[in-house]
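Hi R.,

As promised on Friday, here is the backbone we talked about, encoded as C-alpha cells. Could you run it through your design pipeline when you get a chance and send me back a sequence?
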C-alpha cells in the first residue's frame, strides 16, 4: 500500500504574525536605545562643560604664571575667570587691568574681556547653565577668581566680599542634573561628585 504525500514541496519561512512580532521587538529595542543615547549625550555635555571650566581656571592661572600679555602689556591684576548670573550661559576668562589695591581690582570690568587681546568668552552647551554661585556657602549673583603673579596669589571676590572658596553649580536644563565645580584660595579647581 502506497501512502500519498500531501505536499511534495514544503516552503519554510516566517508567517505574517512572526514577522510583525519580530519588527515590534526591533522597534521597541531601538526606541529604548535612542532614548538612552540622548540622555547620555546630555550628561556628557554637562561633564564636558564642568571639565572645560576647570581647565579655564588652570588656563587663567597659567596665563598669570607665564606673565602672558593682554594686548601689549602684562595685566597688572593678573588673569581671572568671571561669572554673572545675569547671563547664565557663559563665563569670561579675562585680564584684570587694575593693579592690586586699585578700584575694581579682582572684578571683571570694561575692556578686560577683549577677545583679540587674549580674553575668552566661553559659551556653555545649549542645555547647560550656571545655576548657582556660592562663596563659603552664601549665594551670590556674580563672582570672580583672579590669579595675581608671580605666586600666583588666588583672589576669590564677589561684590566687595572676599572668600576662601567658590562653588559654581552647572545644571542641565530640563533634567536638573547638576555638577559642582569648586575653586579654593590655593587656586585648586575640581569637579565635585554630585
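Update: got your reply. Pasting your designed sequence below so it's all in one thread:
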Amino acid at each position: 500500500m502506497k501512502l500519498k504525500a500531501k505536499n511534495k514541496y514544503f516552503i519554510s519561512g516566517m508567517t505574517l504574525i512572526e514577522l510583525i512580532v519580530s519588527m515590534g521587538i526591533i522597534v521597541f529595542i531601538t526606541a529604548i536605545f535612542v532614548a538612552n543615547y540622548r540622555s547620555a549625550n546630555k550628561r556628557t555635555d554637562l561633564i564636558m562643560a564642568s571639565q572645560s571650566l576647570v581647565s579655564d581656571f588652570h588656563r587663567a592661572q597659567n596665563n598669570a604664571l607665564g606673565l602672558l600679555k593682554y594686548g601689549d602689556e602684562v595685566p597688572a591684576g593678573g588673569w581671572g575667570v568671571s561669572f554673572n548670573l545675569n547671563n547664565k550661559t557663559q563665563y569670561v576668562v579675562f585680564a584684570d587691568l587694575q593693579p592690586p589695591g586699585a578700584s575694581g581690582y579682582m572684578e571683571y570690568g570694561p575692556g578686560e574681556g577683549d577677545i583679540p587681546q587674549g580674553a575668552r568668552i566661553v559659551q556653555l552647551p545649549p542645555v547647560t547653565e550656571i545655576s548657582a554661585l556660592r562663596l563659603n556657602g552664601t549665594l551670590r549673583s556674580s563672582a570672580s577668581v583672579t590669579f595675581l603673579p608671580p605666586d600666583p596669589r588666588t583672589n576669590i571676590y564677589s561684590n566687595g566680599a572676599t572668600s576662601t572658596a567658590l562653588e559654581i553649580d552647572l545644571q542641565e536644563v530640563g533634567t536638573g542634573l547638576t555638577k559642582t565645580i569648586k575653586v579654593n584660595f590655593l587656586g585648586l579647581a575640581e569637579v565635585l561628585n554630585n
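One thing I noticed while checking it: The two ends are 83 Å apart (CA to CA).

Thanks again,
M.
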